[in-house]
Amino acid sequence: MSTPELGLPMVVPAQGLPARVRIHEVGARDGLQNEKATVPTEVKAEFIRRLAGAGLTTIEATSFVHPRWVPQLADSEQLFPLVSDLGGDGGAPGVRLPVLVPNERGLDRALALGARHVAVFASATESFAKANLNRTVDESLAMFEPVVSRARADRAHVRGYVSMCFGDPWEGAVPVHQVVRVCKALLDMGCDELSLGDTIGVATPGHVQNLLAELNEEGVPTDVLGVHFHDTYGQALANTLASLQHGVTTVDASAGGLGGCPYAKSATGNLATEDLVWMLQGLGVDTGVDLGRLTATSVWMAGQLGRPSPSRTVKALSHQE
Amino acid sequence: MSTPELGLPMVVPAQGLPARVRIHEVGARDGLQNEKATVPTEVKAEFIRRLAGAGLTTIEATSFVHPRWVPQLADSEQLFPLVSDLGGDGGAPGVRLPVLVPNERGLDRALALGARHVAVFASATESFAKANLNRTVDESLAMFEPVVSRARADRAHVRGYVSMCFGDPWEGAVPVHQVVRVCKALLDMGCDELSLGDTIGVATPGHVQNLLAELNEEGVPTDVLGVHFHDTYGQALANTLASLQHGVTTVDASAGGLGGCPYAKSATGNLATEDLVWMLQGLGVDTGVDLGRLTATSVWMAGQLGRPSPSRTVKALSHQE
């Protein structure tokens, strides 16, 4: 039996879901940062432009981390000016182009180039804070505090990533109260939104809904919460559905499933934006994304990287072998 | 960051889900039937034994189709006696070993070998009925009628597969009333349960819940309904979650994601049993399956077939490159 391109799912809404979801596209930053071979700056800029052309309105562009930490993103000062015309200022129309800023030095560089959306990257666990930032959780929060307050003073929008919200490779299951504590600290210092990360992909839908409910009970409203699932165990889209049912309207995803290699030992594959859009489009949830253009972008990027996209929707729509 | 084997998800139940799900394992039949290289009968028998050893209680064993149609399953008369000791009779303890019977001749062969669970394979669309059975939908139902009634007279349990319940590669979106009509016809002729197949993987959660609700409205109770999702667009587990939320307690899956090649043009990958078990275990839904033993079985079978399992959970737990 052959399977011709159907292109789009049938639209049948489900009860209790949001009318619209904002996709926070992380492919250009989170996706590319693990690529070993250096991707030329012009290719990154073209990737971001194509993502915007496909209708994505929040495209994380790069990271102003020290080049030694993430060599792939060492060109952020060259890249950002190539795409910053896409970004609207504050409430104005246009595309949001958030950039990661690990510390005040990174913030200075981002603001100097006109970034209006920045993000800090915290951890819910001590082990990952130590591994990723060489600090305790509290030391890293103290490091972020002036970053957030200065960004806010400059009227930039601040996202706080919270990684290892469900499981941690060293510590196992992560107690909800640890996640709540870090989330509240980030909001207290002025973050506008949070992204709850299942960095190792172990979460299941009940765990997700439980964390969201606990955060609500502790005074954190759902509308500041985004979710960031990894597909390591194939759970990302089911967890996303559970989040939507709880009222979440911001979902992180990576075009073509870029990020980590799903075939390698420490598989950390991000949820593929195309698989997410297929589901949302079928559910009648508006994203503004053109699935055909997005898939074409991921196929083009896969060509640049020299290997196929792990996204099932990209495979199915592109007949990518 | 390395990702040591965590092995199992944290258990956090979600509201409104069944306490127990029966997994209908299709790897040995639906999974293997598309394999080009002939799998030795002894390997198939060992696969089924290992699946039973991992705790699966419903293992579709083979098909009594004419050998010309599905050469891979031409050994069903040799295979079934090698594993039939696993199968309990009717309500007795043991493993269910359903076999596909396309017609009365196939039923005769299956019953002669002591099969107690049989299945017929219908289509919701004319195009697939024509392509798969060279008959109209009504002609194929007429062919199944004596198969089902004679199986029932012999006190065998009968499952009715309904393929193309959501989309069809020739006809596009499939109207719900077509699916309802075929389901009711199969139940009227005596089928004990149905399996609703998303054969090309295009369904999304609202579409799934809508079909289930329409079937209920037409007098078909949820407890005779199983679901059979394909992961062609990455939707299988989200659709399964939506089905569980509707009360479905029978879910088809294929060990290691066997069935169709997820990397080939007409990707038809079945939902991987391991990805399903990870979610159900995390949700605290009892399946009786030992995820470690199941994963080991799929890794072993991948070795027999000479290529890695497409299941993300198998990849993650086995560090399969």
UniProtKB/TrEMBL annotation, chains A, B:
Main EC class the enzyme belongs to: lyase
Any GO BP annotation: L-leucine catabolic process
Alphabetical keyword list: Lyase, Metal-binding
Database matches in InterPro entries: Aldolase_TIM, HMGL, PYR_CT
Segments forming domain Pyruvate carboxyltransferase: 21-295
UniProt key word Lyase: yes
Signal peptide coordinates: none
Enzyme Commission code(s) on record: 4.1.3.4
GO molecular function, one term: hydroxymethylglutaryl-CoA lyase activity
Family, as annotated: Belongs to the HMG-CoA lyase family.
Name recorded for this polypeptide: Hydroxymethylglutaryl-CoA lyase
